[in-house]
Amino acid sequence: MLQTGRTPLTIALAALLALATLGQGAMPARAVSGLAAGGTTIYLPLVRGTPPVVPGLPIDPFATRSGQATYYDADGGGNCSFDPSPSDLMVGAMNQTDYYNSLTCGAYVQVNGPKGAVVIRIVDRCPECPVGNIDLSREAFAKIADLVQGRVPITWKIISPALSGPIVYRFKDGSSKWWLAVQIRNHRNPIWQVEFRDTDGLFKALERQEYNYFVEPSSHSGPVPESLTLRVTDIYGHVLTDSGIPLVAETSTAGHAQFPPMP
């Protein structure tokens, strides 16, 4: 039986009010289907009107920064502990402040200079560079300025580029069930946290190192599983979980998914 006073207009207003109230809370989580067995992808709920970043993030990943660019003889390796990449030298070394204890390792950055723009991947740190500065490879510097200039003003920002394939887990030499050190490679977005599931079924956060590995915490005692479940969170709060990752030193194992692109 219809109630009196509930005209179409009031019904519409009530619906709008309900939507507005929902918009102030968490949005429904999104998920990717079709993943291979052993992996799950979770995109954490986002709050409308709030930039989607993890709590406590020390940088604004949406900001455009300014500084200066220089160049060096880069090979793709460096303090981030990535392998040399002679076929891809669009790389650079981040100043010590914006390096944030390897937080920006592997980040893709668009650099704008006097002659144009270039997208680079951060593979190293520049301890002597002032905040805002990036030391580019010769090849990348030549995209934005003439090499003879040596030092030029730039603006830059972190981007979320097109990237093929899933994230990759790389285990450091010396890794075993008694000492775990893992690095994330081929990631679209900067990495915030890496966790492993211990023998009790609990996730424990690994400790980030300046050389861009995540290491078993000193507070953890006992062996870690030799078939690992790892949970990786990017700086925007997206979470990837992979199970059945073999713990073998100096090897790389692909996960099952990639982080989604950010606008």
Could you please describe the fold and organization of this structure?
This protein has 2 domains: 39-52 and 165-254, Immunoglobulin-like (Sandwich), CATH 2.60.40; 65-159, Barwin-like endoglucanases. The protein contains 3 helices and 16 strands. It has helices at 8-23, 96-99, 138-144, and strands at residues 39-43, 65-72, 91-95, 108-112, 117-126, 134-137, 152-159, 168-171, 181-185, 191-197, 203-205, 207-208, 214-215, 227-234, 238-246, 252-254. The longest helix has 16 residues, at 8-23. The radius of gyration is 22 Å and the shape is elongated. The termini are far apart. 35% of the residues are buried. Mean pLDDT is 86; it is low at 1-37 and 42-49.
Q: Which characteristics define this entry?
A:
single chain, 263 residues, mainly beta, Immunoglobulin-like, Barwin-like endoglucanases, six-stranded mixed barrel, five-stranded antiparallel β-sheet, elongated
Number of helical regions:
3
Number of domains: 2
Task: Give the SSE order as H and E letters.
Answer: HEEEHEEEHEEEEEEEEEE
Give the biggest beta sheet: 6 strands, mixed, barrel
- Helix share, percent: 10-25%
Shape: elongated
